[in-house]
Amino acid sequence: MLFVKQVQSKRAWRLFLRRSITTGYKIVDHTFDAVVVGAGGAGLRAAMGLAEGGMKTAVVTKLFPTRSHTVAAQGGINAALGNMNPDDWRWHFYDTVKGSDWLGDQDAIHYMTREAPRAVIELENYGMPFSRTESGKIYQRAFGGQSNDFGRGGQAHRTCCVADRTGHSLLHTLYGASLQYSCQYFVEYFALDLLMDQERCIGVIAMNLEDGSIHRFRALNTVLATGGYGRTYFSCTSAHTCTGDGTAMVSRAGLCNSDMEFVQFHPTGIYGAGCLITEGSRGSVIFSSI
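Given the sequence above, the corresponding structure tokens read:
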């Protein structure tokens, strides 16, 4: 008899919870062709491309776009423009594969290095104020790991930069350019989970950090651009917002994460402090004496 009462009380408690959750929280529904989670450099460019293609696009971000972690990048963007010395995207490809100890996805590296010059010119057309040579070309710096002629031709100058604030300039440029498209921004909305229908993703569910309301974003296409998870470690150069939200959402949905062991601990980071000096120091000759 006691067991029956316990079972009944558990059922009543579950029913109470179910009713209280569904009636106590108003769920606001949204429907889009595409939803992008994250508004850093990758998220903004993805949203622009989707909106330009005619898709009704939403951007869900827990930060205002210009506060995303892309803003912290200092050094620059590698592209084989050849403004300072003869260069070739195939040399860039070689350096990148070699720099990854041959563990990188070579198809992805091939595409990235081949398309990098076009991407830099696109950013220039958006208004990104690259540093310039005296002749007006985009200035390119020498960074570590860059070479000419498949490692046989000495140091290459391949990094396009905006002084030492490249990420800051990139993010503000992309955000300004994105405003010409009909993207709808949901700022300070924390993505909680993917909406799954069997094995198919049909959107995301997020919480409005201002009032705690729950929002359900239904979409035919879902793009996760939530950044890394460096803050799971004691010492790193990632912002405190880099907590792997998207990675966790994917895991909870039963989907696969790939190459999770590859976490960047920046070679010019300062241990313990977690702050970063410019990557340009890797390409500079530094003399010290005691």
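Residues 25-74+164-290 form a domain with the FAD/NAD(P)-binding domain fold (CATH 3.50.50.60). Try to locate this feature in the token string yourself.
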